[in-house]
Specification:
Blueprint lengths: L4 H8 L6 H24 L17 E2 L2 E3 L4 E3 L4 H4 L4 H5 L3 E10 L6 E8 L2 H9 L5 E4 L6 E2 L10 E4 L2 E6 L2 E7 L4 H15 L9 H4 L4 E2 L3 E3 L5 E3 L2 H7 L15 E9 L9 E7 L3 H15 L14 E6 L2 E8 L2 E8 L2 H22 L1
Antiparallel strand pairs: 1-2, 2-4, 3-4, 4-5, 5-10, 6-7, 6-8, 8-9, 9-10, 11-12, 12-14, 13-14, 14-15, 15-18, 16-17, 17-18
C-alpha cells in the first residue's frame, strides 16, 4: 500500500501505543486466524469441476500404463497440436483439450483426448460429424456393441481402434495405434472409466424435433444428422459457398440432415434440410436477406423482394424452399417438385413450434 508523505507526518505525531494494547491486538489477530483455519477445514470445497474426471482414468489397464503428466491444449494452441482439423473444434464452443498417453512395452500406445466443451450440444455436434462405427454401450458392466438406436441416443462409437464418446459437455477420443483384441478391451475399459458417474444429456432440441418423415415419400436418414454452428462445418455436410451465406457463428444452432426419397430415378435423390436458430429475430432476418441476395441473385433482382420471409423457387438442382419465423430459419434444397418443398417447410414450422412449446 502506498502512503503519502502527509500521512506519514500525521502518523508521527500520534501518541505511542502501550505494550498492553499491542499484546491485546495480537491476541485478537491470532484468535481470528485460528477461527478461519477451523472454518476452512469444515467448509465444503465447492462443486467438483467436470475436468476432475481425469482422476478417474486408470493408472494401468492391461499392458498399458498411463503417463504421469498430461498435456493441456488451449484453443489458441489447437493448430499446433493437430494439422488441418483444428477448425472443426473451434467451430464449436471448445474450452480446452487434455491429452493422456498410455504406453506399453510391445503393443503400441493408446492416446486419450478429452475435449471439454461449453455445453453438451457442442460435444454432441463433434460426435455427429461421423456416425460410422459400431455403437457401444459403455454403461454396461462390460462395454458391448449394440443394435443401432436413434441417432440422438448414440453415446459412443468404435471402429478401427478408435473409440469416440459423447458424455455431457465432454467429447472424448481414445485411439489405439496398434489395434488388437487386447487393445480394444483396454480402449473400452478407459471409455467406461471416463463416463462412470456421468448422467446422459439429451440430444440438441433441433435434432430431437426433426420429423421422422415428410409423408411416406421422404424418410429421415439418421446417419446424416449433424448438429453444428459454423459455416465451415456446414460446408463439409452440404456445400453452399465459401462465404458464410447464413451468417452462422457460435451463437447459432443448426441441425442439418437429408431425407431419402421413394421416387424413382433421378427424382428419387435425397432432399437436404437445414434448421437454424439464431440469437435473435433480427439476426435471422439479416441472415435470410444475405442468403437471398447471394445464393438467389438470379431469382431475386430487386431490393424490395429481400423482405420476403417465405418462398419456394426452382433453381438448377431442384426446388428450394425457405421460411423464417422469429429467430428460426428453415431451408430445404433439391426437392423434386414445388409441392414437396412446401411440405418440408410446413414440417420445419411444426418442428420449431414443438421446440418453442417445450422451452416454455
Amino acid at each position: 500500500m502506498l502512503v503519502s508523505v502527509s500521512s506519514q507526518i500525521q502518523c508521527s505525531k500520534r501518541p505511542a501505543i502501550s505494550s498492553q494494547v499491542i499484546q491485546f491486538l495480537m491476541g485478537v489477530l491470532i484468535f481470528h486466524a485460528l477461527e478461519l483455519v477451523s472454518v476452512a477445514q469444515v467448509q465444503p470445497k465447492g462443486p467438483v469441476l467436470p475436468e476432475a474426471i481425469v482422476n478417474q482414468l486408470p493408472e494401468r489397464v492391461g499392458a498399458w500404463t498411463r503417463g504421469d503428466v498430461p498435456r493441456r491444449v488451449e484453443p489458441k494452441g489447437i493448430f499446433e497440436y493437430m494439422d488441418g482439423a483444428g477448425e472443426l473444434y473451434l467451430g464449436y464452443r471448445f474450452k480446452f483439450l487434455e491429452v493422456h498417453d498410455y504406453a506399453s512395452a510391445n503393443q503400441g500406445n493408446i492416446l486419450v483426448e478429452l475435449y471439454w466443451m461449453e455445453s453438451a450440444d457442442d460435444a454432441y455436434g463433434l460426435l455427429s460429424g461421423d456416425w460410422d462405427g459400431d455403437v457401444v454401450d459403455l454403461g454396461a458392466q462390460t462395454a458391448v456393441t449394440t443394435n443401432l438406436p436413434a441417432t440422438g441416443e448414440i453415446r459412443a462409437l468404435y471402429g478401427a481402434g478408435l473409440l469416440r464418446i459423447w458424455s455431457g459437455n465432454l467429447y472424448a477420443r481414445i485411439i489405439a495405434y496398434e489395434e488388437s483384441d487386447e487393445s480394444k478391451k483396454a480402449v473400452l475399459a478407459i471409455g467406461r472409466a471416463i463416463v462412470a458417474g456421468r448422467a446422459n444429456s439429451p440430444a440438441p432440441s433441433l435434432v430431437k424435433g426433426l420429423p421422422a418423415e415428410i409423408t411416406p415419400r421422404f424418410r429421415l436418414q439418421p446417419k446424416h444428422i449433424v448438429f453444428l454452428r459454423s459455416h465451415l462445418v456446414l460446408n463439409s455436410v452440404y456445400y453452399l459457398s465459401s462465404e458464410n451465406l447464413l451468417d452462422l457463428g457460435l451463437g447459432c444452432e443448426v441441425a442439418a440432415t437429408s431425407f431419402s426419397s421413394s421416387l424413382p430415378g433421378a427424382q428419387g435423390k435425397p432432399v437436404h434440410l437445414l434448421l437454424v436458430r439464431y440469437p435473435s429475430a433480427e439476426a435471422a432476418r439479416q441472415a435470410l436477406k444475405h442468403f437471398q441476395k447471394i445464393y438467389l441473385a438470379e431469382k431475386y433482382l430487386g431490393p424490395t423482394v429481400f423482405s420476403g420471409e417465405q418462398g419456394i423457387v426452382q433453381i438448377e438442382d431442384g426446388w428450394l424452399g425457405f421460411a423464417r419465423t422469429g429467430s428460426n430459419l428453415a431451408l430445404v434444397f433439391e426437392c423434386p417438385d414445388e409441392e414437396s418443398a412446401k411440405l418440408f417447410i410446413q414440417g420445419a414450422a411444426q418442428t420449431f413450434h414443438k421446440i418453442e412449446a417445450s422451452d416454455e
